Every structure is written in structure tokens, then in C-alpha cells.
Amino acid sequence: MTVSLAANVTCGENEQFYECGACDIPCGQDVVACPAICLPGCGCLPGYKRNNNGICIPQDQCPKPTCPTNETFYSCGTCDGTCDRPIVPCPRICKLNGSCNCKEGYVRNAAGNCIAQEDCPQECQAVTKAPEDPECGFNEQFYGCGPCDSTCDQDIACAAVCRPPGGCGCLPGYKRNAIGVCIPADKCPNKNCGKNEIFVPCGPCDGTCKNLNPSCLEICRLEGGCGCKSGYVRNSKNECVSLKQCKQ
Questions:
Q1: What is the pLDDT of residues 3-27, one digit of tens each?
Q2: Which of 57, 109, 160, 233 is the most exposed place for a label (fewest CB within 10 A)?
Q3: Overall CATH class of domain 189-248
Q4: What is the bridge-based pairing of β-strands 99-102 and 71-74?
């Protein structure tokens, strides 16, 4: 016979008791490695994360990451060029917790700081044409006059101005998605989500009425998808409902 401990445990604000233990995600992260051993205890409600004070708050209220000068936060992370090598290849796997990287048009100098590419030391300015075999990212190629990428949300009108030494851009027929990866234009996601759903750039990992905290793979689905809003889970009909509706 299984005995529930929930009746004897008082959890904190925005917390609930889990028979198999909680695996809370802190603000600033999207995934955590949960222990393999199942232990009962209190954890954040679905759609909540722990802040720096250990309090469970709605994930959309987590403070945005702060980055150093000339850097910005990318939810999927990216790869920084340097004064010696302005163009670098990026791995195909998304860093789910994101990272701070140089702003567009900036590269890292020898001290590791992001500076405007034109401010690099003179000896680093010798690159005036594309390398013979440039290394670009997934579904990208080198454009001698510089790229002009449209996104899934917007078609870009390109200026008739050449910007040497050029750079990497999407292949013809491809567009950049919400996390900056080039995907076929016909694979751009439909962001018209259903009731109680929102669009998730890296793809959703929704809890269900029977499994509130599923284990999510640390791999980003490049096309993204619709997921339940904070505080909602999927029922047996694949609809996003509140926890109260699960018990009805």
C-alpha cells in the first residue's frame, strides 16, 4: 500500500507537494539535470521558476539576463567572431539556456571584449575579400557583398550597396527563424496558436494532467512550436487547461 505524505507537508507560496520530488528550474535557465533518485518534497508550480532568493515566481517575471558592454543576450546562444577571425562556424545544436554574445557588427578583441570590427588593430583589417573556403553555419553560405536575410516574421528589402568583406547568410529559399537559424522558408512556423497557448521558439515541453513536470531533451527544435501558457498543462484531449480543470 502506498501512503501519501502530502497531507503532512506544508509548501511555500507558489509551491506544491510532489510524491516523486520536484526538479525546479531557476530563473535564467530552461533545463536542469534532475536527480535519478525519486524523493518526495515541495517544488514550484508548473510554469514557475525559482529566483535568486529561492522563491517560486511566474517564469515570465524572471529578470532578463544582463550582459557586458556591446553584448546582448541570445536565447539560443551564438558564436562570436574575433579580430583575427571575424567569421566563425557555429554548431547546429542550440544552447537552450542562451548566452551573452557580441552585438551585430562587433567582434572580440585579444582581451575578450566586444568591440566594433572597424576598431580592431590595423593588422586585423587586412581581410578585404572572402576567404577561398569560408566556413558558415547550418544552411548558410558566404556572400561577398554581405548577407541580407529575411526572417520568418519579415521579408527584408535589401539595399543595393556592397558591404565588403562580406559575410555568411541563409541559402536561397531559406529564412532565419526566431532563434537566428536558417530554415527552409516553407518550414517557418505558424504562430497562430490555440486557446491558452503561446509560441515557443525552441519548441514546447508541456506538462500534462498526469505528468506535471516532464523531462525535456536538451535539443532545440529549430522550427519551434505552440506550447501551453504559464500555469497550464495538457489534458487527455491535448488541450491546454488549468490545474483546476485537470481535477474536474
A1: 455 567 789 999 998 887 777 888 8
A2: 160
A3: mainly beta
A4: antiparallel
Residues 240, 121: Cα–Cα separation, whole Å: 55
Distance of CA 137 to the CA centre of its chain: 17
CA proximity to 234, closest of 217, 215, 212: 212
What are 152's strand-pairing partners? none
Fold category of 128-186 in CATH: Laminin (2.10.25)
Q: How far is CA 93 from CA 78, 192, 238, in A?
A: 10, 26, 28
Residue 112 half-sphere exposure toward CB, CA atoms < 13 A = 2
Compute how many other C-beta atoms are within 10 angstroms of the C-beta atom of residue 51.
Answer: 15
DSSP, residue by residue, 56-90? EEEGGGSPPPP--TTEEEETT-----BSS-S----
Residue with cell 539595399: 159
CATH top class, domain 64-127: mainly beta
Q: Taking CA 87 as the corner, what is the angle to CA 84 and CA 89, rounded to the nearest 5 degrees?
A: 120
